[in-house]
Design a protein that fits this description.
By secondary structure, the chain is mainly α. It has one domain. It contains 15 helices and no strands. It starts with a helix and ends in an 8-residue tail after the last helix. The relative contact order is 0.13.
């Protein structure tokens, strides 16, 4: 094979960090406009308040995680590269093949981590803050508890030397993950193209099922970028009546649980004690349930 096909020029690391900061803002704006222009469900009231709360959580997490883990992650990755430690360095693949394999390995790890967050009770306590959002849109992609991020960041520090990731590979993958999570959380539809795209990647229709308030659907479709992980692990699930999906968790229907304080307290709440069959101060929830029972689409509520 000609050497030029195996060559891969790596731009300065600063360019990757610039893209990592710019992509989320650009895509957030793009998908927000798409949701406004042509939503799949649509949110009649409180959309800005809902988005504001999710984005405040995102900014808070970004600042703290950068301060605590930014430099440490860089040091671990640089040490790994300098000492040629880890699986990818041992294999010695040419740069393009190594890059693809690195992304696949990171995506596979994200599947494992995501599934663990649903299986292990202590992890689910933190992850359920993400699932308690009853109006899924592009800002839901930013709604994660700091505790969940800390757990993921700590484990990654061990994963880097184990598999031999370089800094730029991590930054590229993180950028890809942000793009994909915003894409499949957005309140949009790709129509018939969704069926074909989800053969390869996670799509909005596929991820809507994951955010259903039915536990058997919540515990499915864990993939982040490539959909093949769910197919291989037999956790792939779809439904025909996407328009009747009710988002959120049945244990967290009280409006106070959607405030900033309520979201931050989610891991420490006794879900059973907080459950209300018919929240008296949240008519939207009853309207959604009534629409489902009458066979109407949620967007008509």
């Amino acid at each position: 094979m000609p050497p030029i096909l195996l060559a891969m020029t790596t731009p300065p690391l600063e360019d990757y960090f610039l893209a990592r900061r710019a992509v989320p803002l650009v895509l957030l704006t793009l998908f927000w406009c798409w949701e406004t222009w042509r939503p799949f469900f649509g949110q009649r009231e409180g959309r800005l308040r809902h988005a504001g709360r999710n984005l405040v959580i995102a900014v808070f997490n970004t600042i703290l995680l950068g301060l605590v883990f930014g430099s440490v992650t860089m040091l671990v990755a640089e040490w790994t590269e300098q000492n040629q430690f880890g699986l990818l360095n041992r294999l010695g693949f040419a740069a393009p093949f190594r890059f693809v394999l690195a992304l696949v390995l990171l995506d596979g790890w994200m599947y494992v981590w995501h599934r663990a967050n649903h299986v292990l009770p202590v992890l689910w306590r933190f992850h359920r803050m993400h699932h308690s959002d009853r109006h899924m849109d592009v800002t839901t992609a930013t709604r994660f508890h700091l505790g969940e991020h800390i757990g993921s960041s700590v484990l990654r520090l061990g994963l880097i030397p184990l598999l031999g990731f370089e800094v730029w590979e991590l930054v590229v993958f993180d950028t890809l993950v942000v793009a994909m999570t915003q894409f499949h959380h957005a309140d949009i539809s790709l129509g018939r193209w969704d069926r074909w795209l989800r053969l390869v990647i996670v799509t909005p229709h596929m991820h809507k099922v994951h955010h259903s308030d039915r536990r058997e659907e919540t515990d499915s479709n864990y993939s982040i970028v490539l959909s093949l992980w769910d197919r291989l692990a037999r956790s792939f699930r779809m439904r025909e009546d996407l328009g009747s999906i009710v988002f959120g968790l049945k244990e967290f229907t009280d409006p106070s649980q959607q405030t900033l304080a309520g979201m931050l307290k989610t891991p420490f709440m006794d879900a059973r004690a907080e459950t209300q069959e018919h929240p008296p101060d949240d008519p939207t929830y009853d309207e959604i349930r009534l629409a489902v029972s009458e066979g109407r689409r949620i967007r008509d509520v």
